[in-house]
Amino acid sequence: MRLATGLDAAHNIYPYDPVAGRSPSLAVSPGSTLSTASLQRTQPVTMSIEFEGLDGSGGGLIAEFGGNIIGLFVGFESDGSFLFRSGDGGALPSDATALVQADPGSVGGNGKLVISTRPGTPILASAWWNGRRIGTETPGSAGQSEWSGTNAASVLTTSVVGSITTGAIHDVVVSYTAASDFLIYESLWLGD
């Protein structure tokens, strides 16, 4: 699966792909966990995944890194709202957590999801669906020096390694027909 960018024969512009032409630092297969990886958690990170038939209406996990002290979660809440959070892994709201929240139905179907976070003060987060920036971005004003507390991760699986971010759905994987590898681009912040 590859999201096209550029112009088609009718000169319609394909969606912007913020990671086009970049080489990922790591590719994680759907249904996989990481227990160890050499990720630079104090540096910005961008991640992407392509879906066919993505349906977040019932909630569910796309990916989770770290845990309930410092963690990153991307997926859907039980009402179908999209949620990307990075920083403090405890209960929300938190001044040390950056959030992107989008209304139910705004992320789904076929396309490419790109998320980006930058630790620091404030900690920041941004997300794109099919090349369009989505949701409401809320920076963590108190800041956070890491986007995840560990390198442990779960991608499209409920087999969680270590603890989990508080309040996020982890007992069900989001519904989808097909998915690409989950690509991680270290030291890349796309939010500005």
From TrEMBL:
Organism field: Pseudoruegeria aquimaris
Lineage top rank: taxon: Bacteria
Name this protein carries in UniProt: Uncharacterized protein
